[in-house]
TrEMBL record:
Source organism phylogeny: Eukaryota, Metazoa, Chordata, Craniata, Vertebrata
An MF annotation (GO) of this entry: mannosyl-oligosaccharide 1,2-alpha-mannosidase activity
Membrane topology: Single-pass type II membrane protein
Disulfide bonds: 430-462
Gene source species: Cyprinus carpio
Entry protein name: alpha-1,2-Mannosidase
InterPro entries xref list: 6hp_glycosidase-like_sf, Glyco_hydro_47, Glycosyl_Hydrolase_47, Seven-hairpin_glycosidases
EC numbers for this chain: 3.2.1.-
Length: 609
């Protein structure tokens, strides 16, 4: 209490009251300043993202489903960035998991790798190949028309590359209309996606000057110390896949060093109660999230099921079994879990290990999981019996439940929603012609011809969807009178995707039916006519429109996949022979791990059950 002696009571109490009010005001001002300061400081801490998530209400970040500011996870269905990853959206919470073990594991395995990585012998690997990787004569075809066509594809690659180099060097993709670069947010702050995705294409095409530039960029500028949030799937298929194949093709140590370092950064995503990784990972902190749009914090089949090939090779190169253990654990869970009608739904909880909803698709969300089963078997020199069994059982279930014939006689693979068929096929699902083709030979004897026929029929259907511009829509339907046509305006775009051409390439290698080269050439002409602009190649918004509208994006998979598959289509089969190489889902060739050769030294890599 205070006494103000010289003033009468009333006056002194008024004065005292005023003074107290003033003090209160100052005190409150100070307090609010302090709170603002502390709150503000939170945002400057290194992992401010987590704190923002705690403090910001969802209203402050309206695009996020539940309390997330994660740029990637707030992408909405229909966003091309998702679509190009082969993903579509759904409703659901954005779930975060930060496991305390994450950092320690990376430190331990880094030490582990340091000791063992140098033990890997590139020379020994080369002796394990049955044939020279680039063939007798770099796959040069003997007939002049095919050679000319191949030269055209090479010219397209050079044009795409030169423009990327000129306008977007070091960024992730080229925007050919505005002549600038695009970084996006798929790769967690990593840059140069088009460079890493192009290394092997440049090399096999003999664009050596360009390859050297790309290699030099990787050496000097590919910075893996990044604190951004990345799609585990995209970083794996493009960066890990791209660096692995560049290493296996060239033997340049820098690619091995970089890929093992990057692989380490992906490991914390597996620290979930089941070991099923979440879709989004912060490459710096190791924190991981499920996609905001994925049902109830689930992980996506096509994402966690598309790691196996690369992770086995990471173990090969680093000598670290952890990579293999992580993907073998995913395999084990998927093998054991009960499957509705033998089918694999697209969403699985990384916490409970149960399916979250019954949507099945061989296109977006499911696609490359099936691809990696058969390719794991092939890459294991046909010793991985578990993968083989899972692949052929899945195929059987797909044929029984999903494969349909349209009234017009077209074979297609429908989607399945809890027992109800959706009679549509995505462009992404068109890779399945090639997949079923390469799997035909190892199926049950009485089914072999059937699988080859099925592969040819699906490829034919996908070719039918490429009309009238000779480029195909993102999705096409087989109901209400539609026969492989897009019925919605929003499905009519083409973003330079490879899947249809990929199937032509495999079917050509398997059958040598000249129609596949013919169809590939049609696609080259259409790409030149509709997608080539003054400064690169661009996707188009409507494959049925007579006047094209460009989307201003030269996707990195155009250089890595579309142009590579076209080049291989017009090359002799001894360029990257299929006895020695399997292509990851981004078309990066990875060598078969021979049981008579490297496998002997790395007994953990292959399960022979
Ligand atoms: C590529 O990144 C890969 O092929 C992936 O498996 C699916 N989508 C794109 C190309 O369409």
């Amino acid at each position: 209490t205070r006494v103000i002696p010289s003033l009468p009571f009333s006056e002194s109490s008024v004065f005292a009251g005023t003074l107290l009010a003033f003090e209160k005001f100052v005190f409150l001002l100070f307090l609010s300043g302090l709170v603002t300061l502390c709150f503000g400081a939170l945002f400057f801490l290194p992992d401010s993202v987590r704190l923002k998530r705690i403090f910001l209400s969802k209203n402050e970040n309206p695009a996020v489903t539940v309390g997330s500011d994660n740029e990637l996870s707030k992408k909405v269905p229909g966003d091309p960035e998702h679509l190009r990853a082969g993903l579509k959206g759904g409703e659901g919470a954005n779930v975060k998991a930060q496991e305390p073990a994450a950092r320690d594991e990376r430190v331990t395995s880094a030490a582990h790798n340091g000791e063992r990585a140098s033990a890997y012998s590139y020379e020994a690997f080369k002796k394990c190949l049955l044939k020279p990787a680039l063939g007798k004569n770099k796959g040069t075809p003997s007939d002049s028309e095919t050679l000319q066509r191949r030269e055209k594809v090479k010219e397209m690659m050079k044009f795409a590359w030169d423009n990327y180099k000129r306008y977007a060097w070091g960024q992730n993709e080229l925007r050919p209309l505005t002549r600038n670069g695009h970084i996006g947010n798929m790769f967690g702050g990593l840059r140069g996606a088009s460079i890493v995705d192009s290394l092997d294409t440049l090399y096999i095409m003999g664009l050596m000057e360009e390859y050297e530039e790309a290699k030099e960029w990787v050496q000097n500028n590919l910075n893996l110390i990044s604190n951004g949030e990345a799609s585990l799937f995209e970083v794996n298929i493009r960066y890990v896949g791209g660096l692995l194949s560049a290493y296996y093709l060239t033997g340049a140590e820098i690619f091995k060093q970089k890929v093992v370092e990057l692989g380490e950064k992906l490991l914390p995503a597996f620290n979930t109660p089941t070991g099923i990784p979440r879709g989004v990972i912060n490459l710096g902190s190791g924190t991981s999230w499920s996609w905001g749009w994925a049902s109830a914090g689930s992980s996506i089949l096509a994402e966690f099921g598309t790691l196996h090939l690369e992770f086995l090779h990471l173990s090969q190169l680093s000598g670290n079994p952890l990579f293999t253990e992580k993907v073998m654990n995913i395999r084990k869970l998927l093998n054991k879990i009960e499957k509705p009608h033998g089918l694999y739904p697209n969403f699985l909880s990384p916490v409970s290990g149960n399916w979250v909803q019954h949507h099945v698709s061989i296109g977006g969300l499911g696609d490359s999981f099936y691809e990696y089963l058969i390719k794991s078997y092939l890459m294991s020199d046909k010793t991985d019996q578990e993968a083989k069994k899972m692949y052929y059982s899945a195929m059987e279930a797909i044929e029984t439940n999903l494969v349909q014939k349209s009234p017009g006689g077209l074979t297609y693979v429908a989607e399945w929603r809890g027992g109800i068929l959706d009679h549509k096929m995505g462009h992404l699902a068109c890779f399945s012609g090639g997949m079923i083709g390469i799997g035909a030979d190892d199926g049950p004897t009485e089914q072999r011809q059937h699988y080859l026929d099925l592969a040819a029929e699906i490829t034919h259907t996908c070719h039918e969807s490429y009309s009238p511009t000779k480029l195909g829509p993102e999705a096409f339907r087989f109901d209400a009178g539609a026969e492989a046509t897009a019925t919605r305006l929003s499905d009519r775009y083409y973003i330079l995707r490879p899947e249809v051409i990929e199937s032509y390439m495999y079917m050509w290698r398997l059958t040598h039916d000249p129609k596949y080269r013919q169809w590939g050439w049609e696609a080259v002409e259409a790409l030149e006519k509709h997608c080539r602009v003054d400064a690169g190649f661009s996707g188009i918004r409507d494959v049925y429109a007579s006047t094209v509208s460009h989307d201003n994006m030269q996707q990195s998979f155009f250089l890595s996949e579309t142009l590579k598959y076209l080049y291989l289509l017009f090359s002799d089969d001894d360029l990257l022979p299929l006895e020695d190489w399997v292509f990851n889902t981004e078309a990066h060739p990875l060598p078969v791990i021979r049981k008579t050769c490297l496998w002997r030294n790395f007994p953990w890599t292959i399960s022979e059950t």
